[in-house]
Amino acid sequence: MHVKLTRLAKISVVTACLTLASANSFAALPWFGNSDKESTPTLAPMLEKATPAVINIAAAGVKKEQQNVPELFRHFFGQRGQGHVQEKPFRTAGSGVIIDADKGYIVTNHHVIADTDKIMITLKDGRQFEAKKLGSDADSDIALLQIEADNLTALPLADSDKLRVGDFAIAIGNPFAIGQTVTSGIISALGRSGLGIENYENFIQTDAAINSGNSGGALVNFNGELIGINTAILGPAGGNVGIGFAIPSNMMKNLVDQIVEFGEIKRGVLGISGDNIDAGLAKAFGLSTSQGAIVRQVFEDTAAEEAGIKPGDAIISINDKKVTSFHELRAKIGTIGAGNTVKLGIIRDGESMTIKVKLRESEGANVIAENIHPALQGAKLANGETQDNQKGVIVKSIDARTPATSIGLEEGDVIIGVNRQRVTNLAELRDKFDDNQDNIIALNIVRGRSQLYLVIR
Questions:
Q1: 136 part of the active site
Q2: Could you tell me the pLDDT band of residue 201, with boundaries at 50, 70 and 90?
Q3: How far is CA 375 from each of CA 145, 285, 457, rounded to the nearest angstrom?
Q4: Which of 29-43, 114-128, 316-330 has the lowest mean pLDDT?
Q5: Is 111 a catalytic residue?
Q6: pTM (2 decimals)?
Q7: More reliable by pLDDT, 367 or 216
Q8: 100 catalytic, yes or no?
Q9: What is the 3-state secondary structure of the chain?
Q10: Which of 110, 136, 140, 141 is catalytic?
Q11: Active site residue: 110, 111, 327, 373, which one?
């Protein structure tokens, strides 16, 4: 049997539908309402409140592919004969979760809307809206969208750190683009990592049936609270066999808060390399636990070095929550924003201690500028400073022959204003573009020690 890990946004042939838990076994539980005079236990009352917060996504874009040319033609045409770029339209379908009804914030997976230029949202009541992409993070597979709409329903967030294996879970989404579907099961495992799905993995595993198209949908508890964002499955040929993965709600919230505040992910880093603690390492280091992360190296001039972490330290908890592996530690640190202080539970030479570490920012943090405005396509932006320490938005890199170069942007430029209004970070830059009602936008740029204006028409 061929088994593979599959992200869930593809549209495929319908091979599975609904998995239901036995209602009779839950008859005495307080989460269930009564559907009729015979007091049949049911999840319907909770789902009637929760399902309007889960939406369907239909997105479209164009992928550019390099077409190769046979060697014979390259000989005649030189560099031009190496191939040409062909544009191929594509469509994708998935799900999303409304997390703020007043602001119209919707969370989904990055892979659902990656490289798309039009995102349409369909609510459960049939209303449709075009969504704006506020930010997206490929490494953790989280994206934040926004729509302008009244009378929205949002899901309250649960504390995913309090989940236990065996807790009940309900998946809500849009499998195979057939429409909203609800399935149920339990939490099968926590802290799943090392699967190679994302760069930062700390998944909830569930046997609630999720399939292609469920990406970005909700995993909720019996109180109708969001505990995770459904992301991937492990199964033959992409079909469901009861092994699904969701991004924990706490991890998602950390990332979304950063997008809202800064317009980007300010990823925190410790500055260590390490391994998962297993029985062999536990014996070698004289540890009483076989779960956690062992520090192999502490890099110079990092948060870990500043805090006094040493090679050979065993990290067994973060903010008083148990850590089961180095992968889990890395995922949790990587989704806690830079500048935040965390408490690490350490075992050193057989003694337990707590070390506080103020996380530093990953040097790789940047966003794709076209998500802010099409004229900025080709540039990657990050929060930064000018040579005289004015805060602004720095152009980290820029591709040749793109709209960003056409308006005159250069690598190293720092944007400090839009239409004579000051901006100090990516979130403010995005807001100024969104608020602009004119057809002309003037960017105030600092280049080296000079200032200039670049005009977008």
A1: no
A2: confident
A3: 20, 56, 9
A4: 29-43
A5: yes
A6: 0.71
A7: 216
A8: no
A9: CCEEEEECCCCCCCCCCCCCCCCHHHCCCCCCEECCCCCCEECHHHHHHHHHHEEEEEEEEEEEEEECCCHHHHHHHHHHHHCEEEEEEEEEEEEEEEEECCCCEEEECHHHHCCEEEEEEECCCCCEEECEEEEEECCCCEEEEECCCCCCCCCCECCHHHCCCCCEEEEEECHHHCCCEEEEEEEEEEEECCCCCCCCCCEEEECCCCCCCCCCCEEECCCCCEEEEEEEEEEECCCCCCCEEEEEHHHHHHHHHHHHHHCCCCEEECCEEEEECCHHHHHHCCCCCCCCEEEEEECCCCHHHHHCCCCCCEEEEECCEECCCHHHHHHHHHHCECCCEEEEEEEECCEEEEEEEECEECCCCCEEHHHCCHHHCCEEEEEEECCCCCEEEEEEEECCCCHHHHCCCCCCCEEEEECCEECCCHHHHHHHHHHCCCCCEEEEEEECCEEEEEEEC
A10: 141
A11: 111
Q: Which two tokens mark 177?
A: 């683009």
In the set 136, 184, 215, 249, the catalytic residue is 215
Question: Which pairs with CB-CB distance under 8 Å and at least 24 residues apart come from 362-365?
Answer: 362/267, 362/268, 362/269, 362/334, 362/338, 364/267, 365/264, 365/265, 365/266, 365/267, 365/338
